[in-house]
Prior knowledge:
Layout: H1 10-27, H2 32-44, H3 48-51, H4 65-74, H5 78-97, H6 103-106, H7 118-131, H8 137-146, H9 148-175
Amino acid sequence: MTREISESHPLLRLFRGMTESTFMTELGIGDPRLVGYVANLLARFVPSQTIWRIRDDQGRRLTEVTAMVAEAESASNTAHRRDCHRHVGDFTLFWTGVYPEALSGFQAADSPDHLINYQVQGKKSYYVASTLDDDDQALVLRRLSDQFELCAFGLSRVRREWEKIANDSMGDSMHRGIVA
Length: 180
């Protein structure tokens, strides 16, 4: 089950503001449910244990997309299958959008994910999750599947914004003599 972050959490408010601004001004996406989902994804993935939350039946953490998909496909109940596919979509969107430079490590020649295209798998996993969901979340998951590349690009722009804020803050601190 995916843990949602409180709407009043400062980190979610920061990510929501940056995501809303970036998605609307740079991508022309004004869908509050999609933008809210992406902002929540960023806030949920701040604690790294959330990124690596899918486990096998022995409780071992799954770190490869291929293993996560296998866990989803072998799940005996629909809710777990949907949750695993949704997580694969979230995982691949996060890494392709926010930290694409990490993909070479995940897809090294000795990795089971070597031949996996994270964008293709993310789109597929969001689509499958959308077919297993019977609430309004299914529409957001379907949209994430349809617009995966655009959302990944949007996340790269959100990262650029938070890095700019961090750099501006560091510059202000240095200017005031706080940082030596």
